[in-house]
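Appendix C reproduces, verbatim, an entry submitted by the partner laboratory led by Prof. M.T., so that reviewers can inspect both the input and the predicted structure.
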Amino acid sequence: MNRAAPVPAAAEHRLRLLSCNILAGASVQRYSEYVTRSLNAVLPGRSKIDNLDRLAALLPQFDVIGLQEVDAGSLRSGFLNQTRYLAETAGMPYWSHQPNRPVAKLSHTANGLISRIEPSAVIDYPLPGHGRGALLVRFGEGEGALAVMIAHLSLRAPTRARQLGFIAEILQDHPHVVLMGDLNTELGSTEMRQLFARTRLQPPMQPTPTFPSWKPKRALDHILVSPSVALEKVWTLPQAFSDHLALAAEIRLPTTPPARGDRR
């Protein structure tokens, strides 16, 4: 875990969460741009930095941010660790990342964590299937600790099922849980039903479409909680920073959570 700067502490019962697949800083506004702007996948550019800056401007309103498809430092990002850049630009004190899929020096995909709260533990888990991982972040100690898992799952349903089975085993040991990320599947899929059957996680009252960002029809990004964590509000950010909309939530914890910095 890396720390950008010290901040004073203040206790709260509510936390604001954000989950965002940032496509390594690239902006896609229609399906055709996957082809016409394919060079964006392998080359850096000022537009990517501008896109990251726009996202960074919104991060201070959240307490815990989970990133997917963030670049850990390769050609396509100008060898910039995008998680660190976002944290420092936003003035958020804690960040960590989990590199998963290096492709020579062209790309290095990762999951990322940015937080206003100091984690008591950050654990990297490689998931079944090539180049996927989950980042488990624990806030606090003992039975009152909050466990937040950030994940980006496979495009293939059989692999997703194995990945969610692995995640279910890890989360069974934690009473207060949040799972968030780009799970690449909708709530009613077979693998998601199996996840809900094997864990304390509960489906939300209704899905929130996040993909594609320019005309969202599919709920592929999720923020799921255990019964002890109240999911009070879920919404998407109106700005499109990639081909997914960022998914936000406000949660209420059963006991006073770990201290966090005052809002600035």
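The two ends are 22 Å apart (CA to CA). Additional entries are available on request from the coordinating office.
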